[in-house]
Design a protein that fits this description.
Length: 268
């Protein structure tokens, strides 16, 4: 146990001195919380695929940091687009707290009530239920109707989302990690829901943590963590972090006056 701790410390010192890296020959596109903004997601995918076609030398891996759904206007469309992208590209998707509420709403009426108050209403409407039909249903009726509204293949797809992904000196999670627990011992509840204990921690993390869940005005780059939730549903900005070797850069899909532009920036 002592040797393991010493080795972890030495690896961390080496990472700080040289900067975190992903494995050689690999390029990661890590996308923050989408929250139902299919328009921004489509624009970002187009920009990423265009870049890949122009720079085909790396092995490309895509990571979605969770919270694909809720609040924005087309959660169903985002899920279906992610499914299609996964058919043609190595796309791994992390579960967010909103996916957890979504799935639990099929089994627990009280969770459904909570889900509706936190963006779930927009998700349900995106599956083809009109606002007029929605308003006619009380909570129990909606609970009973939900399994027939959302296709089983969609629920199965969302249920398969991962909790944590590691790549070289990075670890990708939705919300963050419990700083007092080893990576291999993290609880799902922390990975999907943690906030202040993670964000306010002043010590060192074992890897550079790339996360969503908490909205920042721009990419939040700290010593051992990078926050990528730029509030797409609210701000009209969806962000991808691009990692290759020791290099960090970003691609943003930005909505301005009903038009979406793409912005590239070097962060290294």
């Amino acid at each position: 146990m002592v040797f393991k701790s010493v080795n972890n410390l030495l690896r961390r010192k080496d990472r700080i001195s040289s900067g975190p890296r992903v494995p050689d020959g690999e390029r990661y596109y890590v996308i923050g919380d989408i929250h139902g903004r299919l328009d921004l997601f489509d624009a970002l995918i187009e920009a990423i695929e265009s870049e890949i076609s122009e720079q085909p030398e790396a092995t490309v891996k895509v990571v979605l940091l969770g919270d694909l759904i809720d609040r924005g206007p087309d959660s169903a469309g985002v899920i279906k687009r992610a499914m299609r992208w996964k058919d043609t590209r190595e796309v791994r998707i992390l579960a967010g707290n909103h996916e957890e509420m979504f799935l639990q709403s099929f089994d627990d009426q009280e969770v459904l009530r909570h889900f509706l108050k936190h963006g779930g209403r927009e998700t349900i409407l995106s599956f083809g239920l009109s606002i007029k039909e929605y308003r006619k249903l009380d909570l129990e009726e909606l609970f009973n109707f939900l399994p027939s509204l959302v296709p089983k293949r969609i629920r199965k797809f969302v249920a398969a989302f991962e909790e944590m992904i590691m790549a070289g000196d990075y670890v990708f999670v939705h919300a963050g990690i419990n700083p007092e627990v080893a990576l291999e011992d993290q609880k799902r509840s922390d990975l999907l829901w943690i906030r202040e204990r993670f964000l306010r921690y002043k010590g060192a993390f074992p890897k550079t943590v790339v996360h969503g869940h908490t909205i920042f005005d721009g990419i939040e780059i700290k010593r051992d963590r990078i926050g990528l939730d730029t509030g797409a549903f609210r701000t009209g900005v969806l962000t991808a972090l691009v990692l290759e070797g020791p290099h960090q850069r970003s691609i943003m899909a930005i909505e301005k006056k009903k038009h979406i532009k793409i912005k590239h920036e070097d962060l290294t």
